[in-house]
Fold this sequence. Notes:
Distance between the termini: 54 Å
CATH class of the largest domain: Mainly Beta
CATH topology of the largest domain: Apoptosis, Tumor Necrosis Factor Receptor Associated Protein 2, Chain A
Number of domains: 3
Helix content: 10-25%
CATH superfamily of the largest domain: Apoptosis, Tumor Necrosis Factor Receptor Associated Protein 2, Chain A
Number of helices: 8
Largest sheet: 6 strands, mixed
Shape: elongated
Structural class: alpha+beta
Number of strands: 22
Strand content: 35-45%
Amino acid sequence: MSFSLSPVMAEKRLPFPTFRQRQRTYVLFHPPGEGREPDLLFQHSGKGREPMSFFTLLCRNGHTLCSNCKTVHDWCPTCRLELGDIRCLALEKVAESLELPCKYSTLGCPEVFPYNTKHKHESQCLFRPYNCPYAGSECFVTGDIPFLVSHLRDDHKVDMHTGCTFNHRYVKSKPHEVENATWMLTVFHCFGQYFCLHFEAFQIGMAPVYMAFLRFMGDVSDARKFSYSLEVGGAGRKLIWEGYPRSIRDSHSMVRDSLDGLIIHRSMALFFSGGDKKELKLRVTGRIWKEQ
């Protein structure tokens, strides 16, 4: 959809667009009785109706398009003329005068921002939905923590445990097939919070490794209120990791690639497993505690 400033506004010298917070509607109003729908400072995208962002462009017939849509369309959606690089400064000035609520206002965010700083806030808003922390397959589900806990349990069939200590055994019959190792996720509920324990195999360069780490189902500031330890060993040897859990705001791949967890090289993992080293048998123990 394209947008244009109403000539009625110029002719009748209407005031700047108003912000109606209760209705959550942001419009350039036509005078009553004009028989037309109001012009909106919104664009229609695959995610629904969203505010126009960045700068706006004009086609030769005066229709406007935001710069985000310009990356998709090389022509005006209204008149089909080729778009140039002419900016609509008048509409940009109107947009700069607006104060809009965070798009996560329906999730509880009370903040209102000038139009040109709204997007920066939304990228860091504490009320924005969380991504599903499951790493075994690509999942695009988002939501709050209670919803994601139910989603992990019902849709991903993740094991749920209550308590602040864990003692898990990981067994794999073909430990040399690192690239085909199953990613495992277990959710723990303690201190009124939820934590995700990940265990998986991957390669650092050409070296196959196993890794275990904990993620907190909440924001970074709350994650740092907790600490955890992981321990694995065998044959009189022991490896211990201690740190604070990363928030699920940090993607699974970000935590894994930063090696922020217990790293066990395959040769050591097989040594811990004992026997003929043809089967992986790792027992990972640990605990979670709250910092004072």
